[in-house]
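Box 3.1. Reading complex inputs
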Amino acid sequence: MSYLLPNYQRANREFVSGSGGYLVDGEGQQYLDFSSGIGVANLGYDHPTVKEAVAKQLEKLWHTPNLYQNSLQEQVAEQLIGEKNYQAFFCNSGTEANEAALKLIRKASGKAKIITFIDSFHGRTFGSMSATGQAKIHGDFGAIVPGFVYLPYNDLATFEAALDDEVGGVLMELIQGEGGVLPAKQEWVTAVQKSCQERGILLAIDEVQTGIGRTGTLYLSEQYGITPDIITLAKGLGNGLPVGAMLATKELAGAFGPGTHGSTFGGNLVAMSAASAVLTALAAPDFLADVKRKGHVLKALLEEELLPLEKVVDIRGIGLMIGIEVTIPPSEVVEAMAQAGVVVLTAGHNVVRLLPPLTLTVEQLKTGVAILKESLL
Ligand SMILES: Cc1ncc(COP(=O)(O)O)c(C=O)c1O
C-alpha cells in the first residue's frame, strides 16, 4: 500500500542517481537514457554549468516574490528572446504556461473561442485540459472550460471552414508529442499562420516539448519559418527544476497589466539560475547545430535498421524528438528496453518515443538503436 494517489502507472524501478546520459537504479543497474525524464533533462543529469549555477544561487537567496525587481528573470527572458519582439511571463510548468496563453488570448482578443487540434496535449489543469483535443484527458471531470473547437491536425479545409469572427486564437503544437510524435506539415503551418494574420486571430504555439533545443533550434517555430504571437515553454528550460514560460509579443503583453495574472513561485530564483545556465549551454557555438546533426544521424540509422522490421510501421520526428510507430503495444518495448538497460517512452496508442538528452554522443545513440532493434525483432 502506497501513501501516494494512484494517478500514475509507475514501473517497478527507482532511479537513485544520474550522470551525463545515464541513470542508475536502486540495485546499481545503469541505464542509457533515451527519455530525458520526458524531455526535461535535455542536458543530462549532472551538467556542470547548470549544477554550478544552482549551487551558487542556493548559497545566495532561494526566493523573492514577484513584488520586487528580479534581474535573474530579466536575464533568462533576454536569453530566450534576444532581438525578437517578445516579453516573458514565468511560471512553473507547461500547463501553467498554456493557462497564461489561453487567458492572454481571451483578454487581448476579447473573444472566448479558441481553436485547438484533435490528439493535442496541452496539460492537466482545467484550461489546458479543456484545450487538449482528447476525450480521455477530459475524463469524468464534469463540464470542461467552454469555447474550444477541436479540429483535425494537418487539415487546412476544416481549419479555414472553422474561422469566424468569434475565434480569438489558435493553440497548437508543431509536433504533437503525447499524441504520437506527429509533425505538422510545413504547408499547413504556413497557411494557418497566414489565415490567422489576415483575420487578426492570435497564433499560440505550444513548444513545451519541442522547445529549448529539442529539435536542433531553440524553438521549432524557427524551422517552420513562422513568428507566433505567443510561445509556451517548460520541460527542458530548467533541466529538471520546474520552470515554465510564456512569451508574448510586446503588442499583446500589455493586456496583462498588474494584477491580471501571476504565480507565487513563477520565476523562482533557483529555477531561474538553472534556466539561465541551460540557455547559456545551448548558446555555445555549434551546440544546436550539433543537435540537428545528431538528429539526422539518429533518424537515418533508425530508418536503416528498424524500418525493414515487421513490427515497425513508421519513423517520424525532427531533431532528437523521434516517434517509432509499432504494431505491438509500445509499453512492451519500454519494458524490454529497460531490462536491456535503455530508458525509452511511449506516445499515443502505438508509438515508442525517443527524447534522448541533447548531449548524448553519436556512439551512445548507436548503442541505443542497436538495443532497440533487438527488442523489435
Ligand atoms: C506539448 C505539451 N504541452 C503541455 C504539457 C504539460 O506540461 P506540464 O506537465 O509541465 O504541465 C506537456 C507535457 O507533456 C506537453 O508535452
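In summary: The pocket of pyridoxal-5'-phosphate is lined by residues 93-95, 98, 121-123, 173, 177-178, 206, 208-209, 234 (CB under 6 Å).
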